[in-house]
Amino acid sequence: xxxxxIGASGSGKSTLAEAVASAADAFWIDADRYQWAxxxxxxxxxxxxxMALYRADRAQHDRFVVxxxxxxxxxxxxxxxxxxxxxxxxxPTRLKRLYDRERARFGDRMLPGGDHYEETKExxxxxxxxxxxxEYALNSLAAHRKMLREAACAAAEIKAFGAPQELAGQVLxxxxxxxx
Length: 180
Known about the structure:
With 180 residues, the protein is an alpha/beta fold. 46% of the residues lie in helices and 14% in strands. It has a five-stranded parallel sheet with strand order 2-3-1-4-5, sandwiched between helices.
């Protein structure tokens, strides 16, 4: 089992991937772990370090569910997946989740005058372009739908409505259906 779940920031892909991995007794890989060296998501790891972490996970786990993508720095990453899922969520809910997540992480630091204000504003502004950016953008709905169309494996787009366990059941049912 090699499932990859992609989607916009704040769509719930990490939560869903963790639930699918738990239900399927597979290893959960969060692609952000490779890129970011800190929990503030401000310090990127050097490419060599990312690749070392990626290769170690791949060498140790042949059953995995990954949330996210390495497309920006390693386009071939997870190319051997056997199921690709695009998780979509309505924009008002997603953008509120992102704001709330930033507020929980950074508190008043993310507000005007705070030391993380510019980073937060830049991140939220970038996230707001997900549905309008074209297929050549690093992270856009158009780019993700292109990945689905061009995937060499089974692929599905699902709506992020319901509890993580319900959505995990939906993903696993689609996975089993497509494995036949």
